[in-house]
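Researcher: Excuse me, tokens okay?
***
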Amino acid sequence: MGDIRLFVSHAEEDADIALGLVRIVEAVMDVPEQAILCTSAPGYGLAIGADVAEHLRQHLTQASCVAAVLTPHSLSSKWCLFELGGAWARATHTYPLLAGGLIQDDLPAALAGRLGGQLGDPKALRQLVRDLRRRLGWSERDAAAAEREIDRLVTIVRDRRSSVDDVDEELGADFVAKWHFIGDTQQEILNHIVRRARGKEHLSYAELKQAFPGRPDLYYRLMQLRYLKFLKRRPIGRSAGDVPQYGWTLSPEYAARVWR
């Protein structure tokens, strides 16, 4: 691996987003050989058998910029939090890039004070590549090709939410119709919260993880139910790793229907 200048931090489940970011950078700039580390981009990943932790430590020290793809998946990934902590400790310039319904308040403590950009916003992506060009000093390539890659990534990010958002817009407050739309897993989670949350301010994420072990997509499922207005979340503090923690309960609208 050569002189790493840009490191793209992401969860395995967000490989398509990370690859889209790399393609934007390649379209915008002449990238020196092996100057990017992104485990999901062909030619920019780790060698088979590499010591992952040691490799990340080494190249976080080298990288002048870290593009952090932040989604519910990455905030529950020990590797992503390790990477972000390393970037912070080494005073690397880190760009928090939000998707999957995350907002500024969801930033982990390692990125506190930094302004996050929404990956579904083409203006934010254009600002990102302008700043990367300035910091990395790589020569400009094809602006038109870059715009096509930006549009492609925006589509990927928005498509992840479109099915939920479209149904929410069409169905409004018709929870009966929404119930038939959501899958068995969401129904099981929702039934559990209905049974356990009455009379409580919230159920913590730790309680829900204990009730649904072996589900790495639990946070994503909860966020889907939040988009559909079955659930609401409230901040209840931060974990030992200083990641925002939330309590979950029924939305007032859905609670009024089931807790009459």
Remarks:
- The first helix runs from residue 15 to 28.
